[in-house]
Design brief:
Number of strands: 28
CATH architecture of the largest domain: Beta Barrel
Largest sheet: 15 strands, mixed
Shape: globular
Radius of gyration: 21 Å
Structural class: mainly beta
Helix content: under 10%
CATH topology of the largest domain: Cathepsin D, subunit A, domain 1
CATH class of the largest domain: Mainly Beta
CATH superfamily of the largest domain: Acid Proteases
Strand content: 35-45%
């Protein structure tokens, strides 16, 4: 059974799970039934402000239960983990397909009576339910597209808060500059250019990376050769499987009236899934977006960007030369950069980092340990099979 809909519902996921020492990226997808009229989710007139860790991580109650972890992800619609759907006792009312990183993934669809994020309430929402090894035992939701359709939204990374405004009464009055945006099948897009090469780019707060260029765009412009990219390997995990590509640095990303210099850039080599799109050039992720206070006014086709204290700070690649699985409980090495401190110390793919400087890895320590200044010594406890050893690494620039 499918949700009544005159056209097949294909859900797009442009984000992915990714960790490069300090980066954690999660793939999310659209799950709203487009045949249903959009709800009126906000009750406030002046706006509803809620705390948001890292600018996008929220707390939400669902059908009166919770709170549960929620992520405001402009690269997705409504999505829920299978573990949470089971906990809430939700029954499948349809099915859909998610075109995520790595390929297509079948998904069930459930209906939620109410979601409450602070003073913001949404009713009668459809969610795609993801059941993959990445979401096992996780209780969380991801919301994006339907909020963007119905509200103006201010994301303040410095104050770590989000404010939702009813679109009928919203009028932007800040000192930022406007970038035209539009949505296409749940993907929020804007015109941008990378080193003079224009294209349509996803604007994705759910992607913790900086910039990803999709495989057809990379091939069309011969970007692997152009950037002299030699670091190749695992670039994250989508719902359909692992993503792969090259790591490089673009010289300049131009977005509206401003530019971001030398963002770490993935040159995707995927032949299926979201990163094989022929119409989207790439994805602009959170490490670029967090350099601004963002004001989304999607109903009027505008994104306003206000430079904040993060603007212009260097984008640092993992100085140990490691690309890691994002799970702190099993921090597995996915790629070792040739010639890097980790490679010189004999580390290899599928090694597991059990400790960082004598402590069990956490999200915070994973994000910070490998971006410390050049010359810092980081002591890792590394497990390979049944053997454990201590590995000291002297950090230096890798990319």
């Amino acid at each position: 059974m499918r949700i009544p809909n005159p056209k097949p519902l294909i859900l797009i996921a442009t984000s992915r799970w990714l960790l490069i020492g300090f980066l954690t990226t999660t793939a999310f997808s659209q799950a709203q039934n487009p045949a249903s009229p959009p709800p009126a989710p906000a009750e406030a007139v002046r706006g509803v402000t809620v705390p948001a860790v890292n600018g996008v991580e929220l707390q939400a109650t669902i059908n009166g239960q919770g709170p549960f972890d929620a992520v405001f992800d402009t690269g997705s619609g409504n999505l829920m983990t299978a573990a949470l759907a089971k906990r809430l006792g939700l029954k499948a009312e349809g099915s859909t397909t998610i075109n995520g990183g790595g390929g297509l993934v079948p998904s069930k669809v459930v209906k939620v009576e109410s979601i409450k994020i602070g003073g913001l309430v949404m009713a009668d929402q459809w969610f795609a339910v993801i059941d993959t090894p990445l979401t096992k035992d996780q209780n969380g939701i991801f919301v994006g597209d339907m909020l963007l359709r119905n509200l103006a939204i201010r994301v303040d990374f410095e104050r770590q808060q989000i404010t939702f405004y009813p679109q009928q009464s919203f009028k932007y009055s800040g000192d930022g500059f406007a970038v035209p945006i539009h949505s296409d099948d749940g993907t929020l897009l804007a015109e941008a250019s990378v080193d003079g090469l224009p294209g349509q780019f996803g604007i994705d707060t759910g992607d913790m990376f900086s910039l990803t260029l999709f495989a057809p765009f990379v091939a069309k412009h011969d970007l692997v050769r152009h950037y002299g990219a030699t670091i190749r390997g695992y670039t994250g995990e989508g719902w359909g499987g692992a993503d792969h590509g090259f790591y490089a640095r673009a010289n300049q990303l131009q977005l509206g009236q401003t530019s971001v210099r030398q963002p770490i850039t993935v040159l995707s080599t995927d032949t299926q899934g979201a990163e094989s799109s022929n119409t989207i050039a790439g994805n602009i992720g959170l490490r670029v977006l967090k350099q601004f206070t963002l004001v989304f006014d999607d109903p009027h086709g505008k994104l306003y960007l206000e430079k904040n204290g993060n603007y212009g700070k260097p984008d640092i690649f993992n100085r140990a030369g490691l690309v890691l699985d994002p799970d702190p409980e099993k921090l597995a090495v996915k790629t070792v950069v040739p010639g890097s401190p980790a490679a010189l110390a004999g580390m290899a793919e599928e090694d597991v980092i059990a400790q960082i400087d004598g402590s069990v890895p956490t999200d915070d320590s994973i994000q910070s340990a490998f971006t410390q200044p050049v010359g810092t010594v980081v002591h890792l406890t590394v497990r390979r099979g049944n053997a454990t050893r201590t590995v000291p690494l002297v950090l230096h620039e890798v990319l």
